[in-house]
Amino acid sequence: MQNDAALAAIEMLAARKIPGPLYIWGGRGLGKTTIAQASAAICPAAKVIDDADRWHEIAACALIDRGPLILTGPRPPGQLEQGELGTLLTHALVVELRPFDRDFALALATNMITAQQLHTPSLQVPPAVLDTVVNVPDLDGHKLAGLLKGLAFAAARGEELTPATVERLRNDLIDPHAVDSRITIRLIQRVVAEHFGITTSVLISHRRHKTIVEPRQIAVALCKRMTPRSMPEIGRMFLRDHTTILHAIRKLDGLEVSSPEMRRLLALLAQKVRRQADADAMARYASEDA
User: Which branch of life, at top level (predicted)?
Assistant: First the structure.
């Protein structure tokens, strides 16, 4: 039910029953990027921009292209920072994505478990465990993915999955509102580049050699986990669109489940990032004290 209004609006836009633009907004992890990707198939003629903060591009589309326009963003139009964008969206059809209800969470979790079983055939989630997952307070897509990935890890190790497993995994999840503000995308890029013996400019370049692609994907995954930044925001810092960022995150998620070496590497790099954040903070403190 959460997505019905958005789907209906996209279909009406595709059939030219509404003039557009269509603005879909909601909080973190409610499916804005997924819906934006799906809308390209439902309404191929539409320009889809999965980040309302890119208002210059949006304004250009509205003034030059005049075609169907589908936008997503984290806030209602009246709370967007750019006054020009807020004015443009005054006449938009606005659809809000609401937090998951239990039925939606259950359906989504079931689909995600089926997809995860392709990588982890041993993953069998008992009904009581699944019920605990879908009743987690303030559940969103990111929390759900994190919990199911943790269950896949546990299953791959031969651990029995119980409601207590879910509660333990909840404590390990990163709260996007409680992340270390000292950890930035640039810091993660610098630490990962130094670890692999390359420069930051090479890391974010468009070179496709494996020795560059894998560090880049690792840095992207760490940025998603260790900062509150959205995929479009991360994409801008890596000179890539959000679809490429999503691909990198999903690939690393799969590798993390199947490869103990990758799990150890990600844990090591996360530790290095935290240590570097501490060192940078101490250096700034010493400089100010001097």
Answer: Bacteria
Q: Alpha-carbon distance 255 to 269, whole Å?
A: 15
Is-contact 133 109, C-beta < 8 A?
A: yes
Tokens encoding 99? 């937090």
Mean pLDDT within 2-28:
80
Asked if residue 275 lies in contact with residue 187, where contact means CB atoms within 8 angstroms, the answer is no
Q: pLDDT tens, 30-51?
A: 888 888 878 878 888 777 777 6
pTM for the structure as a whole: 0.58
pLDDT at 204 over 90: yes
Locate 177 and state its tokens.
């509102």
With pLDDT > 70 as the criterion, what percentage of the chain qualifies?
A: 84
Residues 6 or more apart whose Cβ sits within 8 Å of residue 226 = 174, 179, 180, 183, 188, 270, 273
Long-range contacts of 161-164 (CB under 8 A, 24+ apart): 161/124, 161/125, 161/126, 161/129, 162/126, 162/128, 162/129, 163/128, 163/129, 163/131, 163/132
Determine if the peptide bond prior to 21 is cis (ω within 30°): yes
Cα torsion angle, 150, 104, 228, 46, sign: positive
- H-only helix segments in 138-209: 141-156, 163-172, 185-196, 200-203
